[in-house]
Amino acid sequence: MADNIFEKLTDEQSNLVWAFMIFNKDLIVEKAEQWTKEAEKAGMTLTEYLDSINPLNDAKMEGK
Predict the structure, then answer these.
(1) If DSSP codes are grouped into helix, strand and coil, which group holds residue 16?
(2) Cα dist. 41→1, 16, 30 in Å?
(3) 3-state DSSP call for residue 42?
(4) S-S: 49 plus which of 1, 12, 37, 39, CB 3.0-4.6 Å?
(5) Mind listing the pLDDT tens digit for each residue in 6-56?
């Protein structure tokens, strides 16, 4: 995750991300549990699995 988009957020963007996470906590927890199960089935760590399904990876590959 060398190109972490969350490292370059403005203060306003950071506040919006936190607000989204607070108001969508249940959805975030549900997705984390789903991805953890899918990672286990694939024999990967959660980080490896999330990197493999990252839609930004497709955009990077198209640009090369």
Answers:
(1) helix
(2) 22, 33, 17
(3) helix
(4) 39
(5) 778 899 999 999 999 999 999 999 999 999 999 999 999 999 999 998 877
Residue with tokens 């969508």: 24
Q: At what angle do helices 25-42 and 11-23 cross, to 10 degrees?
A: 80
Q: What tokens appear for 43 in the block?
A: 């024999």
Please count the other Cβ atoms lying within 10 Å of the Cβ belonging to residue 51: 13
- Against a cut of 0.85, is the pTM above it? no
Q: How far is CA 24 from CA 5, 6, 21, in A?
A: 20, 18, 5
User: How many angstroms separate the CA atoms of 42 and 7, rounded?
Assistant: 29
